[in-house]
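hiii so um. not sure if this is the right channel but i have a protein structure encoded as tokens and i wanna go backwards to a sequence. like what aa goes where. can anyone help
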């Protein structure tokens, strides 16, 4: 009987050890699972913010400068920045496809320079449904849920150009404006700003002609202006492409008319440096890209972003053209 009791006690003790061992294993698994979840959470919080930047095109100096600014902002804020754009600004369908691809790949935010603002609104709604903040750069769009718009303040920049011209003219001098397409808000604002700047300096605008942002059309428009108004003293042009066309007409007449353009890329700046264009109102595409990505990162982090951010503009004349060209080359890594 004593032996039976001893065997029974030993069995109970063994079972207790076994159960104790099982309990220890279960507790350890729970601890391991908790540690794993903690590590996963930590890993997720340390993931870099992904920003998709979709430009109007990818093959011009202007857009390469926007790209450079965007990538530099990514480096500063530790974000992964993917910059892309169609081969031409007219390929609106391709741009829309690129925007939607960024949404599908689940970027944390997108910054877009819309080629045709109305064409991208459906894509922006999809981004909103996916909780992806939308930042607009270079060109605005009627999307009420955008984080911000980053771009040139065209009215203020046009006024700078008008004021510069007024400072070089005498009261009563005849001035013309060659502008982009009628109804285009960018060119509307630049024209209005230039008129305000000239008027503030006591100069009235006598002629305004549209050349649809085309160099050849601007050449023709300027030839007509010169023929009808041989006493004209200056012309303000609302983009660089048209300004270079107008300059060609002026040079063919050996005229001393001042030509002030708008944009500030290398071709225009080199023309200023060599004595062609008198000056340009220079945009800052590098800052458009930089501030666009900066705003996108802030939005993802839940930080406050102003609803409109002016990327700035300044007058470039012969005195500072070389400096401006050097800065562009640095941004492009030349």
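sure thing!! here u go:
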């Amino acid at each position: 009987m004593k032996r039976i009791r001893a065997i029974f006690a030993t069995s109970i003790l063994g079972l207790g050890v076994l159960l104790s061992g099982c309990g220890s294993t279960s507790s350890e698994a729970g601890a391991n699972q908790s540690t794993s979840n903690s590590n996963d959470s930590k890993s997720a919080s340390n993931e870099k913010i992904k920003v998709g930047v979709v430009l109007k095109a990818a093959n011009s100096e202007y857009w390469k400068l926007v790209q450079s600014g965007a990538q530099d902002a990514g480096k500063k804020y530790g974000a992964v920045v993917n910059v892309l754009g169609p081969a031409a600004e007219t390929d609106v369908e391709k741009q829309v496809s690129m925007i939607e691809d960024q949404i599908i790949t689940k970027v944390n935010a997108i910054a877009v320079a819309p080629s045709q603002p109305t064409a991208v609104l459906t894509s922006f709604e999809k981004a909103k449904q996916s909780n992806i903040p939308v930042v607009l750069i270079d060109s605005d769009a009627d999307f009420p849920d955008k984080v911000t718009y980053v771009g040139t303040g065209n009215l203020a920049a046009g006024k700078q150009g008008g004021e510069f011209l007024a400072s070089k003219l005498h009261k009563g001098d005849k001035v013309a404006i060659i502008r982009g397409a009628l109804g285009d808000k960018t060119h509307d604002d630049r024209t209005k700003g230039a008129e305000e700047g000239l008027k503030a300096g006591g100069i009235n605008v006598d002629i305004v002609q549209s050349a649809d942002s085309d160099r050849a059309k601007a050449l023709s428009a300027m030839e007509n202006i010169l023929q009808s108004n041989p006493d004209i003293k200056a012309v303000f042009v609302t983009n660089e492409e048209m300004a270079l066309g107008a300059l060609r007409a002026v040079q063919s007449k050996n005229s001393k008319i001042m030509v002030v353009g708008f944009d500030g890329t290398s071709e225009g700046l080199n023309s200023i440096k060599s004595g062609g264009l008198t000056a340009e109102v220079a945009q800052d595409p590098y800052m458009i890209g930089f501030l666009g990505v900066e705003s996108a990162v802030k939005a993802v982090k839940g930080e406050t972003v102003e609803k409109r951010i002016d990327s700035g503009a300044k007058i470039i004349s012969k005195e500072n053209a070389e400096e401006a060209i050097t800065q562009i080359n640095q941004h492009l890594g030349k």
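oh and The domain at 154-283 is CATH 3.40.50.2300 (Rossmann fold).
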